[in-house]
Structures are given as C-alpha cells and as structure tokens.
Palmitoyltransferase
Amino acid sequence: MTNLNCFGRHRRRTAPQSAGSRNELFALPLHSRINGWSLPLHSFQLLAWLVYSFMAIVGFGVYVPLLPAPWSFAAYALIGTAFVLHLVSHVAAVTIDPADLSVQRRKDYSSPMPVFDKNKHQHVIDNLHCTLCEVDVGPKAKHCSTCNKCIADFDHHCKWLNNCVGGRNYWFFFITISSAVIGMILLILVVLFVFIEHYVNPAVLRTAPQFQTVKGNGTWLVFLPAAPLETSSIGLLALAFITVLLALAALLLLCHLLCFHIYLLSQGISTYEYIIRKRQLPNPKEKEQVPPALPSNGATAQSLGPLESPVNCDAPLSSRSCTFKLEDRGQTSGRLPEPICAELQEVNGERHLEYSSESPTQVIPGKPVMSLPVGRTPSGIEKPQAPGRSVEKPAEGRPIVQDPLGSSIMDTAVVHQQLMTEAQTQYLGFKE
C-alpha cells in the first residue's frame, strides 16, 4: 500500500535547483523598479555616497581651509564646482526613469509583471514588442532583468547608480563621471600640497586668525572657520595619507570608466553593443585549433609528392576500393597480374611517376622538340596522337598499361588486351 503525503510534495520551481546553493528557488522580480531609489538599494550605491561624503568633509573641512588666502579661494571655487556638479548630475542620473516611453505611459509600477515563458516566445522583445511589458518599444530598447522593464536606448545597468543608463540619463551619467574625475584630481593636489608644506614651511598653512590662539607648532586646527577643532600633526598626516590612497583608488576606476565611454562615443556605439561585438569575435585559441585546408581538386599531383606507401600484390581487389573499380562491381579474390605488380613495384621504387597533366614529348637530337605526344602501334611504329589526348611513352621492355595510381577507374579487359598485344609484338620482333 502506497502512503500519500500531501505535505511532502516539492513546490513548483521556476528554475533548476543548483547544488550547493542556499537560494533553492529563483524567481523574477514581481514589480518593475521606478529608478535608482527603489528598494532594495545596492551596496555599491551606498559605497559611492559614502566615498563622496568622506571626500567632501575632508576636503572642505580639513585641507582646503589650511591653504593660504589666494589659493584657498581658487580651491573653494574649482573643487566646489566639481563637487556640486557631481552631486546634481548624480542625483539626476539616479532619479530619472530611463524606461521606454510606451512603458512610462502606463505609470503603473505597482502591478506585478508577467513571467517570461520561453515555450511561447524565444526572446523577451520580439518584432519590437516586449512580451513582459506587453508594449511596443523602440529599435534600441532592451529589457533589463534587474529593473524588469524596457529601457530606451539601453546602454548598461549601473550598480553604482542602482539604475539603468539609457537615452534619457546617459549624459547625466557621463557628467557624473567627468566631474568626479576632475574633483578627485584637484583634491589630491590640495592634500599633497598640505602634506609637503607641513615639512617644508608649516607657517604657510597657519595663516588663519584662529591659529593665533594656538600654542606650539604641533597643534593644528580643522573645520575652519566655523567650528575649529584641535588635532595633532600625526592625525593630520595620517588622514592625508588615507585620503590620497582612497582618492587614487577611486580615480583609477573613474578614469578607466571615463576613457571607455569616450571611446564608445567616438565609435558611436553603446556598452551593450560593444559587449555583443566582443562576444561575436572568434576566440584566438579556436583559430589555432582549426585544421589546415585540404588542397582543392584543381591542385596538381606534383605538389603532393611521390607516394611512399608500398604496393601489396597479395591484397584482393574489392569493389569498394578507391583505386580499382571493376565494371561488374564484384570482389575478386585473385592476385594482381604479375606484369602489373612488377610495373607498380618498379615505379614506386624509382619514384618516377608523373602526375602532371602535361604530355611527354619526343626529343630527337639535332631537331626541335616536338610538342605533340607520341604513341606506339602494335607494329612498333610510333605515330603522333591527336591533340588533347595524353599517352605516356613506355620505357624499354615495359608494357603499356594505364597507371592505377593516376586514375581511379581501370578496365581489366583493356589491360589484358594491351598485355597480349605487347607480348605478341615483342615475340614477333624477337623472332625476326
């Protein structure tokens, strides 16, 4: 008797269960994301805001106020402009909804999205119609799996913004990167200037009126002029070292990203198109593994070189052989005829087989070379052959047979007739 347990059945899964994974069930997001502020927030997004806040506090609260009067005003203006421009463009890139216009017209992100069924549709977007968003989209629109909506002029999904970068917010994204690079470079220059002047001429950095009440050169003030706080030289220099290292790491990533997007703009392509092109390029390792092309049928047999395989006289002739194909297509168990076998062994040993399509010519001393091929009649008299036909001139004492290595078809009756004719000719000549 079979025990039925209704509570022990496995639930219906949307993806195969991966071994060793904690997430046994994989489900697509039920709702579409509006912008970068939609929950859940990405860890990279929080890290980007923490780095920006740290650089702004350290730059405008510690090191820029220590600069002398002419340079402090310039630092406030340039670095302040870069940081404000970065803040505005960053917020705009995160807040803007980059979805396609047809998706935005719905204005209903609260309803759950349908799940993509590969049995009904091969692609998410088919004939400019998204099967998930159930709207018609533009030619460059792509459906982002993270945001779960179609993005107009899709470029990529940025984890630092927690939002997709498309046609509507691409330039805000580009300004965000550019302003961040400029701000980091200027801030590094200011911190290095303070670090060097601290050892060379510390009096240059102590021009603020609040330093008149400070006793000793080992005490420094930060957060001038609003809320001056005292600190030591070690704390000031350690903070400068940490700031420079963090700024250099961020600058390396930002410069790489900025140069990459400058290259994409010069080529007129997006990040998505760049990735697709890289995937379509052949792998260099696969090119090395491709075998060399075989010679075509039109190649001459001279390029193949002489045959090195020995001739087996005891092998039976089969109808499936590529060298001898009999008309009756039957398999013969007899051996090759002795004249043919001797001929093949002698030719294979001397390596004098001619595979070219040119005909042998008759050479007579003292006379011009004849261009017509010659043959031999049964009576032993040579006569020119018709143009277009090629017949090998036989060697002395060698029967005229068709070379089995030069042709894939040979008639046994013709070979037998040629052997009998040659034997009679030699016998009559010997008798005379």
Remarks:
- The chain has two domains: 43-280, 313-351+371-432.
- The radius of gyration is 44 Å.
- Residues 295 and 304 are 9 Å apart (CA to CA).
- The longest helix spans residues 233-267.
